[in-house]
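Inputs:
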Amino acid sequence: MKGMTLIVKTITDFVAAFIVVFGAYIVLYGHLTPGGGFAGGVIIACAFILVMLAHGKEQAFARLPEKAAHALDSGGALAFLIIGWLGVSGGFFFLNVFGRGEMFRLLSSGMIFPLNIAIAFKVGSSLFLVFAALAMFRRRSFRSMIEEELS
Amino acid sequence: MNSIPLFVAIPLGAAFLIPLLGLWWKKSGEVFATLSTFALAVMALMAIGAPAMVHHMGGWTAPLGIALVSDGLTVLLLIAVNVIAFLCTLFSLKYMTAYTGLPKYYSLFMLMVAGMNGVVVSGDLFNLFVFLEIASVASYALVAFGVEADELEAGFKYMILGSVASVMILFAVGTVYAVTGTLNMADAAREIATRFGGTEMNPALLLAAAFFMMGFGLKAALVPFHAWLPDAHPSAPAPISAMLSGVVIKSLGVYAMCRVMFHVFGFASTSPSSVIIANAMIWFSLLSIVVGGLMAVGQWDFKRLLAYSSIGQIGYVTLGLGVGARVLATGGTRSLAALAILGGLFHLINHAAFKSLLFLSSGAIQHATGTRDMKMLSGLGQRMPITAATTNLAALSISGVPPFSGFWSKLIIIVATVKAGHPAVAAVAIVMAFVTLVYYVKVQREMLFGPVRGCAENAHEVSAAMYVPLIILAIVCVGFGLLYPVWGNQILEPARDALLNGAEYIKLVLG
Amino acid sequence: MTVYFLCMVLLTLGLYCLVAKKNIVKKILGVVIMDYAVNLYLITIGYKHNGVAPIIEKATPTAMLERFVDPLPQALVLTSIVIGLGVLSLMVSMVIRLYEKHGTFDMSQISKLRG
């Protein structure tokens, strides 16, 4: 895919980093304001997808390589599971073992804070990989497919 | 901490670990899948005879938090799911070498097992829905795994119908929450029993029951919700067909329907709405028995015949459970309901054993000869003795020939139906049992006996990793029938008691 | 009361779209409409007259706690949206593969498995 017009490419270069920062804000403050891991992860993925739409798949993979995306995907999910296992020391799965701090501060939600971050990584990289997989297929006519089969 | 969350945590951990290590080590899928399913099978077998347990996740007690419950019915399903998952993983080690992208296959397989285990241990309605979705989406992807045109079409059809079912189930969960104010199954059961015991249920709850029946009926492939099964089960790779037909339709469909209908809505209060629900179960099961049996007779594709046969046999399972429900709802004797439910649950675990055996042997035949069309095969008994012998055993067992296990379970179901006062239904069930024998004799005559012809000429016996699961399942088929006094009161009767005593479930979870 | 009825109408519209249209992509849109109908239904279950969003901030007086709408269905809907997203992406990728194999989006020409 060759990408879009010059205006779109320039604006994307300006804006993509800010989108990632905004997504990170939504993730980190997920226990105080609406949002959380999933919504923030989707926004972060949107930044990379915007780069993919504007410049093409190769540029997007230059910024986030495919193997790294797969590793972040599985790693985020494993991190979620490991945080759940940490509660076994108290007798229950997913028991909150982190400190709770004072209310309304950033580090005041115990287990929810690292869980949000893990989910943001998983959802972000998954969504990016889904779009990369969908962008693999090109529009072809039936005739060209038949010609390819016969040759 | 008790071991209930491990049934979900171990396969989930394996499912996330396999793709991560699969980036560098291609064989990670086989190793971790075999280890985890073996551990799960051992844990499930060790849970036999254990007392009923509850695990409150995160320390929050029910009804505020999510509870994971393990009672007799759960243990029965856990054994079926995990042992068959282990045997199918063993079978996949050799069978799936023809496909690419194997770490993804094993990861999806472990996700499906995690979802099924989660459905079975869940004590909370929405938790049940989430795990049901996990298992369903994993199975949609697995059905379309080898991306040929047939498999994609079957997977797409399965996916659309499965999504409709999930939407119905979520609708029903929302309605139950709106009426009772809680999502915990035991708490909802208590609310419904105290507010509507003995009288007409709130119409919204009856609507929720209808939606549950639609949703779980589609997952269990009851007629008229069966349209996805004859396409999806033949198109999937053979170990996945064995898992789908052997355990997925039972744990996602029949178990979830039982748990919700018997415990949340409850039949113990003899209200007119319970009679409506029980009648619906009996009607759907009767339709399934008839349609499944009649459509299977004309099939020449071996796996499609087995798929229609699954529809029929699940009809028998729900017939047993439905007759038991109706006896309870109309105020009949408890022992008669216990007999019917025992027959239904016995046929459930029997069908898990022999249907997975049949699908695995169809996979062995396809691996050895390259086809599953019965017109092109003949005389496999001479070239593939182990596969043919186990297929014969399974065919005799599923047709209800004594002394194999299928005979006893069908006998109990039919006797209970007659004693409950439905002789016409029992007559239909007996006739369709003969029809089952007819099409399995057709399978044996066309494929296994006779001179060696067609594609069978190049066949030879499959390797050890593929025939060992067949032998183990064949021993199980015989053993369930002959050794019933040994294992029956350890595994089957606690499951039956768990379904009958709704009040004990409430006391177990809420304390 | 009318809101629940309208959610049911939306569900039926989605079901009609799924059944009656021949194009596969339109069938997928039917499933998506049904998904959103159920999400809408779940959220409206938690509605309270004159309710406010259930977010506690430092300045929230305790008298306001009774005016919060029910936050539990909102958590259910979040999960349901995620599940819908996953299923939708799987469906779309299957449709793309089907188009590659058959060259058409018309369901009547794709369905070959019969009997």
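DSSP finds six helices and no strands in chain A. Flag for discussion at group meeting.
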